[in-house]
Amino acid sequence: MRVAAIDLGTNSFLCTIAERETNGYRILSDQVEMVRLGQGLAKSTKKILHPEALERASQALEKFADKISLLNVEKVLAVATSAARDAENKQDLLAIAEKFKIPLQIISGQEEARLTFQGAMMDHDPDTSMVIDIGGGSTEFLYLEEQNIVGKSLDVGGVRLTETFFTTDIPSAKEIEALQQHIEVQLKSLKLPKDPKKWVAVAGTPTTLACMYLGLKDFDESKIQKLRLKLDDIKGLLKKMMVPIEVRQNMAGLHPKRADIIVAATYILIGAMEFFNIPEIVVSTKGIRYGIIKELL
Questions:
Q1: Model-level pTM greater than 0.70?
Q2: SS (H, E, C) the chain
């Protein structure tokens, strides 16, 4: 049986197609489209998905639908998260998905946490691990407590904070200070279990930092999955990114369409690592869509 799991995030859309095998599954296709669904949401008083963002969403879902048809996929499930939850015109996104015959659910933060944790823990011990998921609109901290998945969500994400705090490619000292203060205030509201043995970081921010750290020209999951990044490594990468956007867009490992938000997103990760005294993270390429694959199979 072949299944397709689609994650419609605030910044990127991902579609992974997998086939069941005797001892698990194998990945047949893994597509990523930088859609920026959350364009302008942080700045607007009305929480409306921008027409340009919806057009990009339509183009991405059409590509996914073509691949799903080509590979004769039997089961499909798409989920939308932070940006879609916030938007007043979420029905427009649902209509696009229906047009391409893609079943779409706009899931709660709790369901997002469950699927993300389930996917991230495919290669780790859930009893001793904490998952940090930095998205475009929000950041989640996920862990297991008495065999229940607990998710704590903060409204800090790469797209949201870039639009809120930064006015130039290279943020000023004043903008950085305001950003860091905001992140710290948000983190102080969290109550997490003490001293997990391992912090697993999922989503585009840690995988991008891993690609940059390794100097990869192309995404290579075999080299990124389970890579350990120390706090000083991440700070070093952040320092290198404090350059004009046209320079940043050409850095090895950094997708040009992620270049404008990666600085704010990295500050979120560094802020969390400093606040919780995390010496290093373990990078995971598996998030929501792998949780979906596990359930569909």
A1: yes
A2: CEEEEEEECCCEEEEEEEEEECCEEEEEEEEEEECCCCCCCCCCCCCCCCHHHHHHHHHHHHHHHHHHHHCCCCEEEEEECHHHHHCCCHHHHHHHHHHCCCCEEECCHHHHHHHHHHHHHHHCCCCCEEEEEECCCCEEEEEEECCEEEEEEECCCHHHHHHHHCCCCCCCHHHHHHHHHHHHHHHHCCCCCCCCCEEEEECHHHHHHHHHHHCCCCCCHHHHCCCEEEHHHHHHHHHHCCCCHHHHCCCCCCCHHHCCCHHHHHHHHHHHHHHCCCCEEEECCCCHHHHHHHHHC
